[in-house]
Amino acid sequence: MSSDFEAYEQDFGTITAEITNKIGRIPKLSGEEKTQLVLNVDKQLEEVRELLEQMDLEAREIPIQSRAMYNSRLKSYKQEVEKLEKDFKRSRIAYSDEVRNELLGDDASSSENQRAHLLDNTEKLERSSRRLQAGYQIAVETEQVGQEILTNLHTDREKIQRARERLRETDANLGKSSRILTGMLRR
User: Fold this and answer.
1) DSSP 30
2) Architecture of the structural domain at 3-105
3) Within the chain, what is the greatest distance between any pair of CA atoms?
4) What are phi and psi of 6, to 5 degrees?
5) Which of 8, 39, 131, 140 falls 20 to 30 Å from 124 in CA-CA distance?
6) Helix boundaries (H) for the chain
7) Does pLDDT of 96 surpass 80?
């Protein structure tokens, strides 16, 4: 059974080497040739995934004493495939950007102009955000000052009202005192 696993390993090595070579060539090609290469790599990645499944099944059939070694090799192969898929995805993204640029007629200088324009707009947006934040802070501070003024006015009004009440009481008491004094003088 380990001979089947090793045969799958040889196939795996051959196909992954081809995939690595093709992924490196994708950015250098254009047009239909590039499209065909992308499709071919996608197909080969599917074959590699199937090989991994076969290797996994074979590893389960291997006696327990040797299984750990085969499982660790299988794990490293899976990591290698994940890396290949990431590399392929990056090359496809670059491929997609190139196709988009070709269709839209964008060139490198236009892209740089767009980037510069975007940076300018970002800076303007940040300045506007800072101004808005400063304005909001001033509004909050103004509201706090206004609240303090209203509190002080309310306190002052209460003081004035208490003073007015004392003045009325004092006036009423003066009226009584003056009657008493007038009454005493008459006697």
Assistant:
1) -
2) Up-down Bundle (1.20)
3) 142
4) -70, -35
5) 140
6) 2-25, 31-61, 64-104, 108-186
7) no
Domain spans of the chain?
A: 3-105, 111-186
138 DSSP assignment:
H
| Phi-psi category of residue 62: left, alpha or beta, with phi > 0 → left and psi -120 to 50 → alpha | beta
Burial of 56 (0-12, 13-18, 19+ CB in 10 A): middle
Burial 148-173 (b: 16+ CB within 10 A, else e): eeeeeeeeeeeeeeeeeeeeeeeeee
Residues in the chain: 187
Mean residue pLDDT of the chain comes to 84
CA gap 166, 8 in Å, rounded: 106
- Let me know: does 58 contact 8? Beta carbons within 8 Å: yes
Q: Residue 129, CB half-sphere, CA atoms under 13 Å: how many?
A: 6
Quick one: pLDDT at residue 87?
87
